[in-house]
Amino acid sequence: MRAAALTLLATALYGAAFPPLAATPLAWIALVPFFLPVTRVSPGRAAGLGLLFTLGLGVTVTWWAPRMLTDFFHLRPLHARAALATRHRGRRRPSASQAAKTIRS
Which of 21, 36, 73, 76 is deepest in the core (most CB within 10 A)? Predict the structure, then answer.
């Protein structure tokens, strides 16, 4: 439980290094609470903490992406989130404009 809490703390600190807070020195400090528990647990648990860290970064760093799609490509918020969540197997991931065209059609 403590390892997960430290991992979430690391994602919060790392996210604060990006706009709108833009406290860039935190990017260097933020990894410490993540690396401390990862070096002391089993490889499987470390992989789980890495997944938690990655998912946390996705939320804290790319929170602006759905808003960008709604503002610049005039997508509805639900469609913007769907475009970001789309998986494309065996193909290159489409650009945002291609995703917008697909959703509109």
Answer: 73
